[in-house]
Specification:
CATH class of the largest domain: Alpha Beta
CATH superfamily of the largest domain: 2,3-Dihydroxybiphenyl 1,2-Dioxygenase, domain 1
Distance between the termini: 30 Å
Radius of gyration: 19 Å
Structural class: alpha+beta
Number of domains: 2
Oligomer: single chain
Number of helices: 8
Shape: globular
Length: 343
């Protein structure tokens, strides 16, 4: 939820410098082969029909594909032996999410005591044109709150001042954020789309809780090739009520890929630091499993500069086109979040 827009306005010199370094980071090739964009953000659901109904009726996603997948290729990619899954791709604006239901080898539910500072926490941020109207629609559909209510971030958080945000839960307790940018913040495309009269516009980013921002930068920036778009230090009553974590103070880092699309946002809790670690025994079938899919031209070259923590059994070759890619590998970032590299 940081401001990433640089345009012809009177901006502080510091923001211009950040924009210049972000541009240089996009133009200078990283070592080895890097990713080009996020294709999808996905997560595991317990009941596909129920989940699709939620995302296409409570939210205005459009279903674009619906497939059942099984066999050794998917087993080796997911790391779940004997799995048969139903995968549905949904689209909102130009961005996609991927829902996966494990029909066999079902996983565990999200822990009831999960909090926003636990390191398995991940969400997507949906941009809305009018927070009041969007919140009213969610209330009409009786969604469960994760925040106490919509929050407007105060002026002392310079990079995020005036941003309105609200967390809520889907039927499996995955957290979703809706976000409204003030005129001078956010990508220009969101303000252009707001003029169309649509209420829910698309997905700006996926946010992940990290233990240490520098450690995560070594993975997402140095190994995958994302560029830092901006940072923000968020604290205060509004931030506490947004995350529903008493005393929350966050260091936030936004990163973008070379091509337009969903961004990545680090949420490092400077306080409190009592968030639980990512469960070491997590499987792709567990409902807290999210996976962010990055497109790359050559997966092999991704691993020349770092040693991955594989979820999959290495790079998996797919004969068919049901999943939309020929080769893929699934790995964990330094905090345990799943990253799927697709070619």
């Amino acid at each position: 939820m940081i401001n990433e827009r640089i345009e012809n306005r009177s901006l502080p010199v510091g923001w211009l410098i950040i924009g210049l370094f972000s541009l240089l980071a996009l133009l200078v090739p990283a070592r080895g082969q890097t990713v080009s964009r996020i294709e999808t953000v996905g997560f595991t659901v317990s009941d596909m029909d129920r989940a699709v109904d939620f995302y296409t009726h409570v939210l205005p996603f459009e279903k674009i594909s619906d497939n059942e997948i099984f066999g050794s290729e998917f087993e080796h990619l997911s790391g779940v032996f004997g799995s048969r899954v139903r995968i549905v791709d949904l689209k909102l604006g130009s961005e996609k999410i991927e829902l996966t239901e494990y029909l066999t080898q079902e996983g565990r539910p999200i822990p009831a005591d999960s909090r926003s500072n636990d390191r398995w926490f991940q969400h997507i941020a949906i941009i809305v044109s009018d927070m009041d109207k969007a919140y009213a629609q969610l209330r009409q559909n009786k969604v469960r709150h994760a925040s106490t209510g919509p929050q407007t971030l105060p002026s002392y958080i310079t990079a995020a001042a005036g941003i309105k945000a609200f967390y809520f839960k889907d039927l499996d307790s995955h957290v979703i954020e809706i976000l409204q940018f003030p005129e001078e913040k956010g990508l220009l495309k969101w303000h252009d789309l707001a003029k169309t009269g649509k209420l829910f516009l698309g997905i700006d980013h996926t946010a992940i809780v990290v233990r240490d921002s520098d450690e995560s930068l070594s993975f997402y920036r140095d190994a995958l090739g994302l560029a830092v778009a901006g940072t923000s230090d968020n604290y205060g009553l509004e931030q506490e009520h947004l995350n529903n974590v008493f005393g929350a103070k966050l260091h936030i880092t936004g990163l973008r890929t070379k091509l337009d699309g969903i961004a990545v946002e680090f949420l490092e809790y400077v306080a409190p630091r009592d968030g639980k670690p990512f469960p070491a025994d997590t499987r792709s079938s567990d409902l807290w499993h999210w996976e962010t899919s990055f497109a790359t031209a050559k997966i092999d070259q991704m691993f020349t500069s770092f040693k991955p923590d594989f979820i999959s059994s290495g790079i998996v070759q797919f004969e068919g086109k049901q999943l939309g890619f020929e080769r893929a590998a699934m790995i964990r970032d330094p905090n345990g979040h799943a990253v799927r590299l697709i070619e």
